[in-house]
């Protein structure tokens, strides 16, 4: 089937397991007017646990490897968070296993459980086979799950990396929007997202290749998402993503800038390695 400022670079560790998707088609991608292929994916990894709620990073590693993706946005990533993920650094460990670079953007960064232990962190990450030129952890509106009486306030966890893909700068964003039934926080988060992405476009002073990956916790036709589609193309993968067992709704997204990125194909692989299914898309970057 075709299809900042905390940056850790983890280099090659690889091997191949079974595949769900064939490797993306290659293209020369050189010279004016050429299109550069890029396979991207988004996956809410449920802190390393599958649909059965059993922590199994080997299972998720195999699933991620089978996507053959160049860039992967991850949500619900534990870094020394607690016993549910064995206090492990899932961002760095997955990158090391897959032979990819990683940028982790914590939503929460808490004091360690024991003196001298690493900070307890939870957030989003971007894995990349391409060099990470820069990375930033932006603040967007959030309703904290760590506060017994939360109020909407700016908080980190909207990760951005700039990659150099065959000479082309590409802005990739990883996000996880609010899960509550009341859309008010998501409305604010969408406004924050559009502002940050617009600032990047103004700063570049030229057409910018932008890719937004994430769990939006809303259906494609949800009113709170409508503003995103003014400048971004919602990549339709042709299947729902949640829950992983008998999925009924699509809440996981790949969205790309309309004028600088073309979509070749997209799919939702069938897997129970998390409580979500991933979305994988084959893109073509305009030079």
Segments where pLDDT lies below 50 for 5+ residues?
Answer: 1-20
Total domain modules:
1
CATH homolog superfamily: Endonuclease/exonuclease/phosphatase
Question: How many β-strand stretches?
Answer: 13
Find the CATH topology. Answer: Deoxyribonuclease I, Chain A
- Which architecture would the CATH scheme give at its second level? 4-Layer Sandwich
User: Percent of residues in beta strands?
Assistant: 35-45%
**General form:** globular
Please count the helical segments.
3
Could you describe the 3D structure shown?
By secondary structure, this protein is mainly beta. It has a single domain (7-22, 37-286), classed as Endonuclease/exonuclease/phosphatase (Deoxyribonuclease I, Chain A, 4-Layer Sandwich). 14% of the residues lie in helices and 36% in strands. It has three helices and 13 strands. It has helices at residues 57-66, 90-98, 184-204, and strands at 7-8, 35-44, 71-79, 101-110, 120-128, 132-142, 153-165, 168-176, 209-215, 232-234, 252-257, 261-267, 279-286. The strands form two sheets. Strands 1-4-5-3-2-13-12 form a seven-stranded mixed sheet, covered by helices on one side. A six-stranded mixed sheet has the order 6-7-8-9-11-10. α3 links the parallel β8 and β9. α1 packs across α2. The two termini are 25 Å apart.
């Amino acid at each position: 089937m075709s299809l900042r400022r905390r940056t850790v670079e983890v280099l090659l560790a690889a091997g191949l397991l079974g595949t769900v998707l064939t490797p993306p088609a290659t293209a020369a991608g050189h010279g004016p007017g050429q299109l550069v292929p890029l396979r991207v994916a988004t996956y809410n990894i449920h802190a390393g646990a599958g649909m059965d709620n059993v922590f199994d990073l080997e299972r998720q590693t195999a699933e991620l490897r089978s996507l053959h993706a160049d860039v992967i946005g991850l949500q619900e990533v534990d870094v020394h968070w607690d016993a549910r993920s064995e206090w492990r650094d899932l961002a760095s460990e997955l990158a090391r296993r897959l032979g990819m670079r990683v940028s982790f953007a914590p939503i929460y960064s808490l004091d360690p459980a024991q003196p001298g232990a690493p900070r307890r962190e939870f957030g989003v990450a971007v894995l990349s086979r391409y060099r990470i030129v820069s990375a930033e952890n932006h603040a967007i509106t959030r309703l904290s799950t760590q506060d017994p009486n939360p109020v909407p306030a700016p908080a980190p966890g909207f990760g951005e990396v700039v990659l150099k893909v065959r000479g082309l700068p590409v802005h990739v964003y990883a996000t996880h929007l609010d899960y509550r039934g009341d859309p008010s926080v998501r409305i604010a988060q969408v406004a924050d997202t559009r502002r940050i992405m617009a600032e990047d476009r103004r700063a570049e002073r030229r057409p910018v290749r932008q890719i937004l990956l994430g769990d939006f916790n809303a259906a494609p036709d949800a009113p709170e998402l409508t503003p995103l589609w003014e400048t971004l193309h919602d990549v339709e993968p042709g299947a729902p993503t949640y829950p992983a067992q008998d999925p009924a709704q699509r809440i996981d997204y790949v969205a790309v800038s309309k004028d600088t990125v073309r979509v070749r194909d997209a799919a939702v692989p069938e897997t129970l390695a998390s409580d979500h299914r991933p979305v994988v898309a084959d893109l073509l970057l305009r030079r």
